[in-house]
C-alpha cells in the first residue's frame, strides 16, 4: 500500500511540474522617447552591455530571451541636454518606466 501511495504522489508531482512549465521565450523591448537623440546603453539577450550612439528621439529595439532571471538595464543620456524618457517591456507588458523629467534615465527589470 505504501508503494502505491508513494508512486501516486511521485506521478502527481511530475505531472504538476511539467504542466506548470514556463514559456521558453520572452520578448524584451526597450524604447526611449525625447525631443533629441540620445546615447543609449542596454543589456542584450546574452546579458552583455550594448551602446548605441546618436539614437533617434524615438528609438526602439527588441529581442527574444529564454534566460529567466536576466537583469535588464536601460540607460539613456540626451545628446543636447533635453528631457528623455524610457520604457522596458517584457512580453508586451510594461515592466519599468522613466517618464522623462531629466536629461538622463536609468531603469531596470528582471525577466521572470
Short description:
The protein has 112 residues and is of the alpha+beta class. The protein has one helix at residues 2-19, and strands spanning 26-34, 38-43, 49-55, 60-65, 71-78, 84-90, 93-102, 104-110.
What does this structure look like?
With 112 residues, the chain is of the alpha+beta class. The protein has one domain: MmpS1-5, C-terminal soluble domain (Immunoglobulin-like). The chain contains 1 helix and 8 strands; from the N terminus they run H-E-E-E-E-E-E-E-E. A hairpin with a 5-residue loop joins strand 2 (38-43) and strand 3.
Total discrete domains:
1
Strand order of the largest sheet: 4-1-6-7
C-alpha termini separation: 41 Å
Number of DSSP E strands: 8
Key structural traits:
112 residues, alpha+beta, Immunoglobulin-like, four-stranded antiparallel beta sheet, 1 helix, 16% helix, 54% strand, elongated
Question: How do the helices and strands line up, and which of them pair or pack?
Answer:
Layout: H1 2-19, E1 26-34, E2 38-43, E3 49-55, E4 60-65, E5 71-78, E6 84-90, E7 93-102, E8 104-110
Antiparallel strand pairs: 1-4, 1-6, 2-3, 2-5, 5-8, 6-7
